[in-house]
């Protein structure tokens, strides 16, 4: 039962899916949920791969397929990670001090840097999805970007401190979830290498990128918050799409 509860926590934390199971968001379930971050990403990837397979069967033109798949991708997460990278861009590129940067990130309005970041992010994902279809890549490789992105988010959630000593991110981090993240990471390594041995390179790049972003956040605002986690997810997903299309 504890395993099921931790899976539910992982899905409800990372997606907009509501599972009709009452669970306690206590320390135990939070730390165990880190094992399942990769599973949530794989679930998202399977939906995307299934959609692409269906659209290919109906011979939809690549651009139309790519747009629909991208919309599905956004719908699954409710766009919360996109909101995170937008807030991070607005705050970090404003070149203000820590307090002002955090204030800008909390502002519900999207600034110029946020808009530019969202546009570039969606354009890159769209182009990579379209290219993925055109060059006839194995559709199941689409599982990798969302899976590794959530493993990367789990990594920084486990190993880097938050900006404040309260909130869900702090509760996750303070629950000492590293061993559970490590279990999920090892399983992801094995499955990813089966899908494509070159994916191990992508995993290395993802961990490096998430480390660099976390260190940048630590320098700018003294730690990590929900916006940074979302930004890392989106950044690693984009890196993954480019990597898969390139190799």
UniProtKB/TrEMBL annotation:
Q: Which family, according to UniProt? A: Belongs to the CobS family.
Pathway per the UniProt entry: Cofactor biosynthesis; adenosylcobalamin biosynthesis; adenosylcobalamin from cob(II)yrinate a,c-diamide: step 7/7
Reaction catalyzed: alpha-ribazole 5'-phosphate + adenosylcob(III)inamide-GDP = adenosylcob(III)alamin 5'-phosphate + GMP + H(+); alpha-ribazole + adenosylcob(III)inamide-GDP = adenosylcob(III)alamin + GMP + H(+)
Question: Which portions of this protein are annotated as coiled-coil regions?
Answer: none
Indicate where this protein resides in the cell. Answer: Cell membrane
For this record, an example GO cellular component is: plasma membrane
Q: What is this protein called?
A: Adenosylcobinamide-GDP ribazoletransferase
The superkingdom listed in its UniProt entry is: Bacteria
What is its biological role?
A: Joins adenosylcobinamide-GDP and alpha-ribazole to generate adenosylcobalamin (Ado-cobalamin). Also synthesizes adenosylcobalamin 5'-phosphate from adenosylcobinamide-GDP and alpha-ribazole 5'-phosphate.
State which residue ranges cross the membrane: 34-55, 60-82, 108-126, 138-160, 180-209
Keywords for this entry?
Cell membrane, Cobalamin biosynthesis, Magnesium, Membrane, Transferase, Transmembrane, Transmembrane helix
Task: Tell me its cofactors.
Answer: Mg(2+)
Which GO MF term does the entry hold, naming one?
cobalamin 5'-phosphate synthase activity
- Known EC number: 2.7.8.26
GO annotation (BP), single: cobalamin biosynthetic process
InterPro entries according to UniProt: CobS
Family annotation (HAMAP family) = CobS
């Amino acid at each position: 039962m504890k395993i099921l509860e931790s899976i539910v926590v992982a899905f409800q934390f990372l997606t907009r899916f509501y599972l009709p199971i009452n669970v306690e968001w206590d320390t135990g379930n939070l730390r165990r949920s880190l094992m399942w971050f990769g599973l949530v990403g794989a679930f998202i990837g399977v939906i995307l791969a299934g959609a692409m397979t269906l659209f290919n069967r109906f011979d939809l033109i690549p651009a139309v397929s790519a747009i629909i798949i991208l919309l599905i991708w956004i719908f699954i997460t409710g766009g919360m990670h996109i909101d995170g990278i937008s807030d991070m861009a607005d705050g970090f590129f404003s070149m203000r001090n820590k307090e002002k940067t955090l204030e800008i990130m909390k502002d519900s309005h999207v600034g110029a840097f946020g808009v530019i970041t969202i546009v570039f992010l969606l354009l890159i994902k769209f182009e990579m999805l379209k290219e993925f279809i055109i060059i006839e890549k194995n559709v199941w490789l689409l599982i990798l970007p969302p899976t590794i992105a959530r493993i990367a988010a789990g990594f920084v959630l486990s190993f880097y401190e938050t900006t404040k000593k309260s909130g869900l991110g702090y509760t996750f981090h303070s629950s000492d979830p590293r061993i559970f993240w490590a279990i999920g990471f090892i399983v992801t390594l094995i499955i990813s290498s089966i899908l494509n041995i070159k994916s191990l390179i992508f995993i290395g790049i993802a961990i490096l990128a998430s480390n660099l972003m976390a260190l940048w956040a630590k320098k700018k605002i003294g730690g990590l918050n929900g916006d940074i986690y979302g930004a890392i997810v989106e950044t690693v997903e984009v890196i993954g799409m480019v990597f898969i299309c390139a190799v």
